[in-house]
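Input sequence (186 aa), recorded before submission:
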Amino acid sequence: MNQETVAPDAELGSCIRNFSVRLSPTPRGARLARLLATEQLREWGLPLHPADHIVAELAANAATHGRIQGRDFDLTLYVIGATLRIEVTDTRGERLPRAQHASPDAESGRGLLLVEALADRWGTPPGRPPRKTVWAEVTLRQAPEPAPGYVSFGATGGLSPKNLGEKEPHQTPPLLPPGRPRHPRG
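Predicted structure, token format:
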């Protein structure tokens, strides 16, 4: 089920955007996660990079390492203020991710290093077993605003405050021009 919602946030003085979808834990599901996220970012008028790479890595990890037969994974995108948060939730809570350096001749094992390099912050909060959520946040240059007349309701994802010891945001590409407003599906 695809879901997109938007709600005004009086505290932040901006709009909260939310998109979520449940996908099969297969290479095809991981690819679809990247494609759907890219299209959603394009519709919101946000830069595709680095979020497209982050979604691809987190979804591939959910399909590869978080896979349990018959259980799907969830992709959620939140935009609150000037922060894009990407969350991927799978059902292998006992297998927590960690960035590690792979040997030079290894064919895999570098995905979380890429996420660490591209995201401003990332982590894995404690969750309800057997689930695990891996999140990454990207700071946008400016808070995106929806087109006039774009009204909907939604929920926040509980963006985490910046903790001490986290790396500083890197410069991101400028925002794309806003597209036409998209109204949520019923």
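Checked by second reader. Residues 27-44 form the longest helix (18 residues).
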